[in-house]
UniProtKB/TrEMBL annotation:
<keyword id="KW-0819">tRNA processing</keyword>
<protein>
    <recommendedName>
        <fullName>tRNA pseudouridine synthase A</fullName>
        <ecNumber>5.4.99.12</ecNumber>
    </recommendedName>
</protein>
<dbReference type="GO" id="GO:0003723">
    <property type="term" value="F:RNA binding"/>
</dbReference>
<dbReference type="InterPro" id="IPR020103">
    <property type="entry name" value="PsdUridine_synth_cat_dom_sf"/>
</dbReference>
<dbReference type="InterPro" id="IPR001406">
    <property type="entry name" value="PsdUridine_synth_TruA"/>
</dbReference>
<dbReference type="Pfam" id="PF01416">
    <property type="entry name" value="PseudoU_synth_1"/>
</dbReference>
<dbReference type="GO" id="GO:0160147">
    <property type="term" value="F:tRNA pseudouridine(38-40) synthase activity"/>
</dbReference>
<comment type="function">
    <text>Formation of pseudouridine at positions 38, 39 and 40 in the anticodon stem and loop of transfer RNAs.</text>
</comment>
<dbReference type="InterPro" id="IPR020094">
    <property type="entry name" value="TruA/RsuA/RluB/E/F_N"/>
</dbReference>
<comment type="subunit">
    <text>Homodimer.</text>
</comment>
<feature type="active site" description="Nucleophile">
    <location>
        <position position="52"/>
    </location>
</feature>
<keyword id="KW-0413">Isomerase</keyword>
<feature type="domain" description="Pseudouridine synthase I TruA alpha/beta">
    <location>
        <begin position="9"/>
        <end position="102"/>
    </location>
</feature>
<comment type="similarity">
    <text>Belongs to the tRNA pseudouridine synthase TruA family.</text>
</comment>
<feature type="binding site">
    <location>
        <position position="110"/>
    </location>
    <ligand>
        <name>substrate</name>
    </ligand>
</feature>
<feature type="domain" description="Pseudouridine synthase I TruA alpha/beta">
    <location>
        <begin position="143"/>
        <end position="246"/>
    </location>
</feature>
<dbReference type="InterPro" id="IPR020097">
    <property type="entry name" value="PsdUridine_synth_TruA_a/b_dom"/>
</dbReference>
Amino acid sequence: MERIMLRIEYDGTYFAGFQVQVNQRTVQLEIEKALKKMHQSDVRIHSSGRTDSGVHALDQVIHFDTALQLDEPTWKHALTTLLPKDIRVKSAQKVTAQFHARKDSTRKTYRYIVLNQKEHDPFRRNYEWHIPHSVDVERMKEAAELIKGTHDFTAFAASKTNVKGDKIRTIERIEVQKQDNRIYFDVTGDGFLTHMVRIIVGTLIHIGLGKKDKACIQEAFGTLDRRVLGLTAPGYGLYLKQVDYE
């Protein structure tokens, strides 16, 4: 048996998330269907993490075990042929049997894109969050600095989070940059809770709009109360940008 690591990207618009769900189209389902055609039997894949409905990936990592003896370019070509057009295999690599896409990941970077102009863009509606009002980017940058570091992020997690145990995570970097009429949020950390990046972005946007004060972030870390923060940003503006292994 060999273990294969794939780096993939996908448009999450028409997926109900990454993980297999009953009677739903998911990324995992489509990849496992393609692998089943190749193997004539079920093959289970393991990912670096789950993405929610509508969320996109520029660099998702998965692994699976196989008895097929194929070289790396053939794996990429074969799966590209079998997968739907909203999933693309960027690379295929043979790894050791000890490698695990989720357990061995050391950090992930997510990107969130906000379209900040009066008019919406009908062609980008599934890829950006449209905010038609003026946003104070400097206020958001100051607030973002308060999120960096190691904290209990319970208040930044959805109530339906599937994480058991402590919710302490380390955010290494948050960059907030405005380029023309778009605001980019890049968040790098050692792990993320359900909706964590979306709650971070929604809170920063509320601070930028003047609806919240940056003090709400320190209050959230102190009280672990979700209600002191801003709204949850919609999933379609979020991208899994990079998964790192060391």
